[in-house]
Amino acid sequence: MVNVQQLLSVQAAFESQLLSKPNVVGVAVGLKETEGHWTDTMALVALVQQKLPLTALAASDRIPRQIDDIPTDVYEVGILRANQLMPPTGRFRPNVPAGVSSGHFSITAGTLGAIVKDRLTGEKLLLSNNHVFANSNDAQVGDAILQPGPADGGLNPADMVARLERFIPLRYIEDSNQPLPGNPGTPPTPSPEPGGCNSVVSALVSLTNFVARISGSQQQVVATAHSQALTASGLPQTVNVQTTSTDNVVDAALARPIDSTMFSNDIRHIGSITGTKTPQIGMTVRKAGRTTDYTQAMVTLLNATVNVGYSTARGPRTARFTGQVIAQPMSQGGDSGSLIVDGSENRAVGILFAGSSMATIFTPIDVVLAALNITF
């Protein structure tokens, strides 16, 4: 019985000779394969780009059946190349996955988080943050969304892959007495319409208040209504669920693809989403983003109220968010919009929108889906 040490000795003695033969790209030791099945015989193995019939090889180019009484074998491995994936900042064509650079034509760059479906129409839409797709409220429905984002070389209109469909406006503490973008004022709260956006808001309010109660929080969410611009599809541009005149629940926006067949349902390094999952303390989560690509971290805090800084056309602004989740650091600038996914299965957990060198902030995914009336 040949032992590994004997094989290694023979490999050292004959490796250069084998590598000098045409078509041989490597030498190793391992189990011999016969007619597609692994045997228990140890062998010296020549790795070749392509197995050729003996008649196509000169006698000097053939691998002998034995070398120094050691069995040999030939493995076909193809052309070996370094697995240099295109970086997430690249221009992906013809297939665009989630987890790559994207953004409104006036921003630097963020991340395309996921491909989702409108609950009413079933059409494919792109999910990211307001500050990625809607330029922190300073955009108009129909504006160009680029891939890659402008900071990564994206040009308008050459790299336009979608148009802004709708977004949830951000409320800033500094602008608390101003009406929301596109809204001339705050009208009286309309009565709920079954199956419409108000029913979605009511569902989100109930969900958020339930989470608050089980977390021991005394803070309750109330729905506030605002006049709503309609998109070309007749769907509402904005849905607003707030705790006070300055609080936020989500930083989220949707874009409509120019060509939906360009977009893959897969998230880079992760794959397709199979459902959703509620974030829990101690849960391992992962994401694919424009700047740090694939990273993992652990959820550390729930039901967080946090103040987040934004750069806007009117200068620095601060937005307060409630009901958020905090994880260990797993992101940097440009990763905003990344979908947060469970560490052990492909279930969406949240959408990343803020962070620092010490923490990552994301919104629970079910809140995002309810607010925007979308699903996977």
Q: What does it look like?
A:
The longest helix is centred in the middle third of the chain and has 18 residues, at 197-214. The strands form five sheets. Strands 7-6-10-11-15-9-8-24 form an eight-stranded antiparallel beta sheet. Strands 18-19-20-23-22-21 form a six-stranded antiparallel β-barrel. The chain has a four-stranded mixed beta sheet with strand order 1-2-4-3. The chain has helices at residues 4-19, 130-133, 197-214, 365-372, and strands at residues 24-34, 37-48, 66-67, 70-76, 96-98, 101-104, 110-111, 114-118, 124-128, 144-146, 160-167, 222-223, 241-242, 247-248, 253-257, 263-267, 275-276, 284-289, 293-312, 315-327, 339-342, 347-355, 360-364, 374-375. 37% of the residues are buried. It has 376 residues and is mainly beta. It contains four helices and 24 strands. The radius of gyration is 28 Å and the shape is elongated. Helices cover 12% and strands 37% of the residues.
Estimate the helix proportion, in percent.
10-25%
What is the tally of helical segments?
A: 4
Structural class: mainly beta
- Could you state the order of secondary-structure elements as H and E? HEEEEEEEEEHEEHEEEEEEEEEEEEHE
Mean pLDDT: 84
Secondary structure: number of strands: 24
Rg for CA atoms: 28 Å
The outline comes out as elongated
First-residue to last-residue Cα separation = 56 Å
Largest sheet: 8 strands, antiparallel
Low-pLDDT runs = 182-243
Widest sheet: strand ordering = 7-6-10-11-15-9-8-24
Name the beta content range: 35-45%
